[in-house]
């Protein structure tokens, strides 16, 4: 038979995260620190909003960009929370989660051969989307504290460079850009006439009084910034599969075209759930974010005690310790600890070429389980 897609077959090995979790299948003693979603229940108004829509028989195709009431609420949210006035009729499109917002972005910005630059380590999908769309993804190594290295970034820019992609708060490092870093980044974007893709799916998970900043809010940036967000992480609703893009109208028009011929639109009834989410009082999250702060602090403290070199995360719900001091790669550490101690941890090399010697730990699990996982990690490290 003729060859299948070589892009999918060759360039994208089976997810290493999946392979790792295959090792755990059938075992009931496994504690997973690999989870990329919060552990609280999706808030009730969201669930009820979805149910009511289904009861009203809202089961037909939705408008391709999304239902107007929801786009309007997202527009309001973007002006209040992200300090950027947008025209909801022209600047917003809904997507199947943040993941498909990224697909829309790659589909509408790039031509094969274009280059994109990101700080590495970074979220895994960016690398594969590059392969799918023939885009060369160039990685700039983060500094030791995971902050961006702008000097190296500038050296990598050439005539093929079309965009810089940032994800702040970051998966997997937990790094959050400072206001000065955002300013420096913007100067580079403007100087080299680039687009800026800003993946903000963790915007609410910031600690120590840090404020999330959207680059689109800076003067002259809206036209060249593609902001990606989703209801997945904030509302613990990853299964709703709803996200959105905010960008200039030309980009959104192209995205709508791509939508029409690929997915036709997003889940209609779920959009009514998202609508309720945007109407919720943010106080609802006070206790939740407090508990994430505690788990962040606890994970950092324990990993340091155990002997890891580790940077304290400023956002998201991941922490990325180095395993260099144990003379193991991240892969070796992950494989051994899942077999010997039943703790599932994602190896760092999944997130780019500069993180072979690290691990990504998600602390979005119950504190008791987190305590048990840390005890097992400590036992494991003592045996090395
Ligand atoms: C940085 C980042 N962007 C996008 C996504 C995708 O989000 P969604 O689940 O809404 O597709 C994730 C999910 O883990 C992520 O970590």
Supply database-style keywords.
384 residues, Aspartate Aminotransferase, domain 1, Aspartate Aminotransferase, domain 2, 2 domains, 7-stranded mixed sheet, 14 helices, 13% strand, globular, binds pyridoxal-5'-phosphate
CATH classification, class level of the largest domain: Alpha Beta
Looking at the structure, the CATH topology of the largest domain is: Aspartate Aminotransferase, domain 2
The outline comes out as globular
Major sheet attributes: 7 strands, mixed
Mean pLDDT: 95
The low-confidence runs, each spanning 5 or more residues with pLDDT under 50, are none
How many extended strands? 12
Run of helices and strands: HHEHHHEHEHEHEHEEEHHHEHEEEH
How many structural domains in the coordinates?
A: 2
**Ligands, deduplicated:** pyridoxal-5'-phosphate
What is the CATH architecture descriptor of the largest domain? Answer: 3-Layer(aba) Sandwich
Q: Which class do the helix and strand fractions yield?
A: alpha/beta
How much is the radius of gyration in Å?
21 Å
Tell me the number of helical segments per DSSP (H or I, 4 or more residues long): 14
How far apart are the termini? 49 Å
CATH H-level superfamily title of the largest domain: Type I PLP-dependent aspartate aminotransferase-like (Major domain)
Strand content: 5-15%
Helix content: 40-55%
**Order of strands across the widest beta sheet?**
2-8-7-6-5-3-4
